[in-house]
Amino acid sequence: MKYLMLRSLETALRRRASSSSLSHLSRRSYSSGSNPERKVAVLGAAGGIGQPLALLMKLNPLVSKLALYDIAGTPGVAADVSHVNTRSEVAGYMGEDQLGQALEGSDLVVIPAGVPRKPGMTRDDLFNINAGIVKSLCTAIAKYCPNAIVNMISNPVNSTVPIAAEVFKKAGTYDEKKLFGVTMLDVVRAKTFYAGKAKVPVAEVNVPVVGGHAGITILPLFSQVTPKSNGLSDEEIKALTKRTQDGGTEVVEAKAGKGSATLSMAYAGAVFADACLKGLNGVPDIVECSYVQSSITELPFFASKVRLGKNGVEEVLGLGPLSDFEKQGLENLKAELKSSIEKGVKFANQ
Ligand code: NAD
Ligand code: LMR
């Protein structure tokens, strides 16, 4: 049963990957080949996202060392994941005393540490706890691996990314090319929901999602979707947009108090981490959506398509042509996103 589940996970990952991302997830390609050494640290590795993400990163042949850090529970997770017969060496680190060791030498740090939502909460309701967690983890990143790429998963992403930027600025290590808010799950959802409605093969669907990662700040650009389906009405596009914006809440409510998206997030996080590693390794034309420092609107942080390269962000791509509905959505999201950014900046500097 477990074997079958893993095989279908692999198949799903490969389908999504089509020709590039995660296409290595086949038995034959578990060897390291000529891939350079890359250390990846996962902070919050014993959590709902952290555990499946650790497994998916263990399946990635671009990773040579996998450091699993949490405040509790990592020895068990690391022992378990380490038995998978793939390239990377796995080590578990537990408690603040071991955070430095976990981070030292990391090329990529993925952060799913922090509390998840319960029904009735907004992502911003997590700010009071998660802002402090992110601030202390980023302080350690600035000290132990200042050149690492950071993939921020912890919510509220609209604020935690600005917090990380401020912490790095204070430490003198900020490189805007290396800080990413992970909004990949919005893209994953938009693709899935669109494919279901338009009856097109999900593996072929591509749709940018821009803005931020909370409610109306999540703006899928279905006018730019490929392959196009002319059969969808404006009402259906509106409904798809709303479902994408509420995708996280749909899972929170279905889990009824037992947390938020973990498995789909681990998948999305693994896809995005893989894209960052490919960029670092010099693979050309790696483009994914992410929430980054940006000047494509008046907001200092904004999610859009980003070209990834050897130094992280190589280019923040523009929005492209928007439908009237999307233009309105863009205007509607700005006030909330601006205030979430300002809240993060203020917190980090107090
Ligand atoms: P979880 O409670 O299952 O796991 C969180 C883990 O973080 C726990 O193991 C906990 O021990 C650990 N942790 C807490 N403080 C820590 C610290 N100081 N250092 C290291 N680890 C610490 O939660 P989860 O379901 O895995 O969600 C984690 C976060 O990811 C939440 O904030 C959630 O809202 C967010 N999330 C983001 C997205 C996204 O699209 N960006 C999607 C889903 C969830
Ligand atoms: C998601 O989009 O699933 C996450 O941001 C978790 C949440 O709280 O919705």
Describe this structure in words.
The protein has eleven helices and eleven strands. By secondary structure, it is an alpha/beta fold. The protein has two domains: 148 residues, 3-Layer(aba) Sandwich (Rossmann fold); 165 residues, L-2-Hydroxyisocaproate Dehydrogenase, Chain A, domain 2 (Alpha-Beta Complex), CATH 3.90.110. The strands form three sheets. Strands 3-2-1-4-5-6 form a six-stranded parallel sheet, with helices on both faces. Strand 1, helix 2 and strand 2 form a beta-alpha-beta unit. The N terminus is likely disordered. The site of (2S)-2-hydroxybutanedioic acid has 11 residues, from helix 9. (2S)-2-hydroxybutanedioic acid binds next to helix 9.
In short:
With 350 residues, the protein is α/β, with parallel strands linked by helices. It has two domains: 148 residues, Rossmann fold; 165 residues, Lactate dehydrogenase/glycoside hydrolase, family 4, C-terminal (L-2-Hydroxyisocaproate Dehydrogenase, Chain A, domain 2).
